[in-house]
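Records of this kind hold a single protein each, on a pair of labelled lines. With that in mind, the following record should read easily:
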Amino acid sequence: MSNLSIVFICLGVALLMLLAYASTRPSDFRVERRLRIAAPAERLWPLVSELRAFNRWNPYERKDPLIKGQYAGLAGGIGSRYMWESDKVGTGSLEITGLQPGRAVQMKLDFVKPFEAHNLAEFTLVQAADGATDVTWRMQGPANFLSKLIGVFIDMDKMVGRDFEDGLQNLRQLVEARA
């Protein structure tokens, strides 16, 4: 057997081991970040429950000033949607699916490009005794095999989590500037 054959066999075995390892990764994911903001929940609520207001602090909107967005449905009610196309943040849509006024907003997040994904996002507001509000941004969804394979090399929690942290800081700055 030639040295080249041995190299190809070793590469094939390494590839099979990588694919086998990726298949053992969790079948779903969850990213969550929290931030305490020095403002009452009623001041934050309009900024998380209405998509146009959300996009004022949304970190993904800020990543691409040329993003093409379109709104549909009521301004802040269940069923309101935002669809976008961007060379930098992909193509997809966000739809409000649930509202608990002053406390929580649930959204369906669908990506078309750069890859297809269907996730759930949620914002929760918990009023603290000192008048501040604990804001939580979470996203969860299924992890298909490609996601599992990418997850071997890229920590999605760190990558997406950084964006969530930036977004929550943007929200803090917006709310505290209004005070």
About this structure: Helices lie at 3-23, 41-49, 51-54, 59-63, 145-153, 156-178.
